[in-house]
Design goal:
Length: about 120
């Protein structure tokens, strides 16, 4: 059942990211579809299946952190992650918020479904 659950979560993640990509500005250096593959390996941690993120997951967090060069980049990445966290019910907000610290890769913005990503400087 865990494998089936992971497949369902992965499909939902891709669907949400495709929807979010349509909403992004074409002038950005990346889209939500660029963020999604980097965080796909984190699904088992974010949904509470695993108690710690995998090395592959943390590598993805590192890559997302590297994408966040400009204010627009940081806001876009924040909105992409927030969008997934709010649309997929099995993802635990506490795990989303703790992911960067658990990977020792703090992001330049907090991750929370209630955080206003447009306030990022």
């Amino acid at each position: 059942m865990m494998k089936t659950q992971r497949i369902v979560i992965s499909v939902l993640l891709v669907a949400v990211m495709a929807h979010l990509m349509i909403m992004t500005e074409p002038t950005e250096a990346f889209t939500c579809l660029d963020v999604a593959p980097n965080l796909a390996a984190c699904i088992s941690y974010l949904s509470g299946i695993d108690s710690r993120p995998s090395q592959i997951c943390c590598g993805g967090v590192t890559r997302v952190r590297g994408m966040c060069v400009t204010t627009g980049d940081r806001r876009l990445a924040c909105n992409c992650i927030k969008g997934v966290a709010t649309r997929i019910s099995v993802i635990k907000e506490s795990a989303v918020a703790s992911l960067p610290i658990a990977c020792n890769q703090p992001l330049p913005f907090p991750i929370s479904t209630s955080f206003d990503c447009d306030s990022i400087p």
